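Run log // design_07
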């Protein structure tokens, strides 16, 4: 809750993520995640632990067309951990897991137009910037662009081979 209750974190996340972020919100999120995992639902989130504390999370949920085998990821990391390569590593581990242990053929992520650091983290993991959905999201009392990134299973494999 301490890291999530930060306006600078909230402004880069979809409105499903509340602000202020309370202890009650944290408890509800943890309980929902447990329930979904127990039910075998494809929507799930995992925590990112750094130095013995929960520093952020990554979530995945199916795209609109469940038959397309497209996963959408979202993520956040407490500001105190920015710039250390933590999210780059976490996304790499997460997409490797999704492609290895599931049926996904494609993973997508959006970054707000004002948050190029999020796009850089994705590109470091082989995601390709595919386009911009102009004024696709209403955030912080204004429309904003969503920069669309995509990663195919074979792209990830090639990316890992070229970086080894």
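design_07 sequence
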């Amino acid at each position: 809750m301490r890291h999530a209750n930060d306006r600078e974190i909230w402004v880069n996340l979809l409105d499903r993520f509340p602000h202020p972020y309370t202890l009650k919100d944290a408890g509800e999120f943890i309980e929902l995640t447990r329930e979904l995992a127990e039910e075998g639902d494809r929507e799930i989130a995992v925590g990112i632990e750094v130095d013995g504390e929960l520093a952020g999370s990554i979530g995945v949920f199916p795209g609109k067309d469940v038959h397309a085998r497209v996963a959408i990821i979202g993520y956040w990391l407490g500001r105190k951990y920015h710039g250390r390569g933590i999210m780059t590593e976490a996304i790499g581990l997460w997409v490797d897991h999704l492609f290895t242990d599931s049926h996904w053929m494609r993973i997508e992520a959006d970054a707000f137009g004002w948050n190029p650091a999020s796009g850089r983290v994705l590109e470091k993991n082989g995601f390709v910037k595919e386009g911009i959905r102009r004024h696709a999201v209403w955030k912080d009392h204004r429309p904003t662009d969503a920069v669309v990134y995509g990663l195919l299973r074979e792209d990830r494999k090639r990316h890992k081979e070229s970086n080894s």
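Residues 23-39 form the longest helix (17 residues).
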